[in-house]
Amino acid sequence: MKSLHMKARNIIDDWAKKVSRKIVSLAKQYQYTVAREDLTGLVENLRKLPKEHKVSLLILSYRRLEHWIDWQCEKQGVPAAVINPRGTSSTCPICGSKLVENSYRKLKCIKCDFEADRDTVAILNIEKKAYKKMGGSLATPTVPQITDVIPNR
Question: Are 83 and 37 in contact (CB under 8 A)?
């Protein structure tokens, strides 16, 4: 049982390393900032979520992915913005008002008639918050790079 657990852990860790390397290399290539939500308190809030969401989040190992994305950003000199997740999937990215559920995973703004999937809404809001946090530019190629680490090690 222990060896199976270690094998699964290694597979997830390997996946997180490869995905983070790809994300950060694309951001470096196009000179973008990597913006992500700060999901630190998510584990404490798992008790409030439905069972299928709990399992998905535990299998995904978002904390490992978060760690490796931050590591790759620091190593390759790509700027990273960590955003507070509050309201990212329930606030209208256009006018800032509260969105109402229109259908399964679809949200609609009553004020400006904006309608989109909740993941799309979250992405737009994270981008908007990262833009503010970075001082108006998400393309900042002047971040110092770690020099004492061999790339992709």
Answer: yes
Number of helices and strands in the chain (H, E): 4, 5
d(CA 73, CA 27): 9
Query: Please, what sign has the CA dihedral across residues 143, 144, 150, 153?
Result: negative
**At residue 121, what is the residue type?**
V
Domain ranges of the chain: 1-83, 86-139
First to last CA, the chain: 30
CA separation for the pair 133, 4 (Å, rounded): 42
Query: What is the residue-level pLDDT of the chain in tens, covering all 153 positions?
Result: 778 888 988 998 999 999 999 999 999 999 999 999 988 776 666 677 777 766 666 666 778 899 999 999 999 999 999 999 888 888 999 999 999 998 888 999 999 999 999 999 999 999 999 988 888 765 554 555 555 555 555
Q: What are the backbone angles phi and psi of residue 107, rounded to the nearest 5°? A: -120, 150
Instruction: Enter the DSSP assignment of 42.
Output: G
